[in-house]
Amino acid sequence: MEATDQIHETVSQVYRSDSRRVLATLIRLLGDFDVAEEALHDAFRAALEQWPRDGVPANPRAWLVSAGRFKAIDGLRRQARFDPLDETGAAAELAVEDAAAWADPESVEDDRLRLIFTCCHPVLPPDAQVALTMREVCGLTTEEIAQAFLTPAPTLAQRIVRAKAKIRDAELPYLVPAPSELPARLDAVLRVVYLVFNEGYAPSSGVSVTRHDVSAEAIRLGRLIVDLLPEPEAVGLLGLMLLHESRRTARTSPSGEVILLDEQDRSLWNRGQIAEGVRLVEQALSTRRFGQYTIQAAIAAVHAQAAEPGATDWAEIVGLYDVLARMDPSPVIELNRAVAVAMRDGPAAGLAIVDGILDRGDLKEYRLAHAARAEFCRKLGRAADARLSYDRALALTKQEPDRRLLERRLAELDRDAKP
Amino acid sequence: MKYLCLVYLEKEKWHAVPDRECASSGDRLRDRGLLLAAEPLHPVETAATVRVRNGKVSVTDGPFAETKEQLAGFYLVEARDLNEAIQIATKIPPVREGSIEVRPVRELEP
To answer: What is the number of domains present in chain A?
Structure first.
């Protein structure tokens, strides 16, 4: 009995370490997500029955792929007996497919990449890409993803069902994109990873500032992509996430209040994550094929390497924002650059840039634009203007700790106004 | 996780799916370790509703709700998550004729 328990533990371990790899290969062999997921379930069930009797196979993963494939074909044949119109002719095709294909370890690693690229395919809506990636690639349950994104589980389940139907109907090829398509497709994958990270690092709504598990999952996914496809931007994004993550503990007070960068206790920053992040940024920069994630990571690295706020190299940061703005011109980057310029040249210079952005009609609904404007006005002693902008920012804030930060700033203004 | 799949059918469709087919699909789910229990029900006319209020037992007919579809049976399944349970529900034959409500089973609090 004890031996059986041990084997059950082994099966659980293999599930944790290899179930996503087995699934990725089964999707390739069976050509359908749902059929492959059923096959995965059946393969692990077979392992629980057979391994205690026959011993753990030398290559558990190959055994599971083979068992899953067999069970799926068997299941399709049985189902065909009940379906009057045989839609399951696929079974016949599957049976003759080259069984040696899955044994090649290189193609098995490629299967994981195929799975990632398929889950992040641009024909799927962004929220579906995120849901599918977290469920199929990361192995989270629908309920866990729903909880992480504060979405009702049935809504999330529906998103996943629709995404799979779309993959099936559009007959998306299960492929790693060709080199000519790779940059754009990798960009879509990295966008999903960064979206997941940000949902954990700075949730768009809710009561707490950070949700650690979600960020940790994004970092794990980032590492997986770097392992499988060490493209400079993938490396840069991993560096960026680690550099942000290094400040997690310092970003929130024990009572859950937001602490901005210049007020953080830098001794709380995670040195190990900073060292790894900086190393990754340097690695990405050295390729000269880097993109916006790498530059953002380089900016985070400059902050991370300043022992105190006063020691920050703002000129370097403004320079990096200039590069970023050329690469990806956007009002949000202009706004971030304005904050760096204000630190280098004073609040008046920052205010001029922000007013320029708002005057031409951009970022009017973006709370951080109004919050930055309020800060600049406050530092310039323009209390009335500052108050208006804080109020505007507050009206646009959905996140509880951010709301409290802005309310604190407003209260400080009122206090300063009294003689 | 356990999920209860509640099968709803209109009265006219009660026998639209042959019992033989339900039995064999139930067997398949059971063989795959997914099915904990499943039973078909008689129509709602056969139901009695019991209440105890102030220590007194009352029994009434029906529930005779206004809805066209009635509870026709249930499958208690074991699944990794809601999407897996939904996938199982798509294999329950009456899903073609009526609808299946998939509900997560709650643990009693200690």
So the answer is: 2
User: Which residues of chain A are within 8 Å of residue B21 when distances are taken between CB atoms?
Assistant: 82
Architecture of domain B2-104: 2-Layer Sandwich (3.30)
**Measured between alpha carbons, how far is A145 from A129 in angstroms, rounded to an integer?**
12
Residue whose tokens read 């139907």: A165
> Among B28, B33, B104, whose Cβ lies nearest the Cβ of A45?
B33
Per CB-CB distance under 8 Å, the chain A contacts of B80 are 41, 141
Cα–Cα distance, A325 to A292 (Å, whole number): 9
Instruction: Read off the pLDDT of each residue in A309-335 and give the average, rounded to a whole number.
Output: 94
Are residues A31 and A157 located together in one domain of the fold? Answer: no
The better pLDDT of the pair A415, A361 is held by: A361
Q: Check residue B55 and report its DSSP letter.
A: T
Residue ending a domain, among A315, A347, A379, is A347
C-alpha distances in Å from residue B75, one per residue of A76, A277, A305, B39, B93? 22, 51, 59, 7, 12
Residue A252: domain span: 109-347
Do A60 and A122 lie in a common domain?
A: no
pLDDT at A9: 93
Domain shared by A150 and A78, yes or no: no
Looking only at the bridges linking them, the beta strands covering B48-53 and B35-40 are unpaired
Query: What is the DSSP code string of A355-380?
Result: HHHHHTTTTTT-HHHHHHHHHHHHHT
Chain B closest-CA separation from residue A291 CA (Å):
37
Domain boundary among A325, A347, A369: A347
Q: What is the pTM of this model?
A: 0.81
Q: Is the pLDDT of residue A182 over 60?
A: yes
Same domain, residue pair A68 and A168: no
In Å, how far are A287, A330, A357, A370, A376 from A337, measured between CA atoms?
Answer: 25, 11, 12, 15, 14
> Does residue A41 sit within a domain?
yes
Average pLDDT over residues A219-248: 94
pLDDT of residue A105: 61
Q: Chain A residue closest to B21 (CA)?
A: A82
Report residue B54 as tokens: 């102030």
Write the CB contacts of A44 (distance below 8 Å, at least 6 apart in sequence).
Answer: A11, A15, A19, A64
Residue B3, beta-bridge partner list: B77, B104
Same domain, A122 and A232: yes
Specify the pairing of strand B69-78 against strand B56-61: unpaired
Q: What is the pLDDT of residues A353-366, one digit of tens each?
A: 999 999 999 999 99
Residues A9 and A144 occupy one common structural domain: no
- The pLDDT value recorded for residue A160 is 97
- Find which of A40, A41, A88 to mutate to test the B interface (most B CBs within 10 Å of its CB): A41
pLDDT tens string B67-98 = 789 999 999 999 999 999 999 999 999 999 99
**Helix axis angle, A347-359 to A331-345, nearest 10°:** 160
**B1 vs A: CB within 8 A:** yes
Is residue A78 situated within a structural domain? yes
* Amino acid sitting at position A274: I
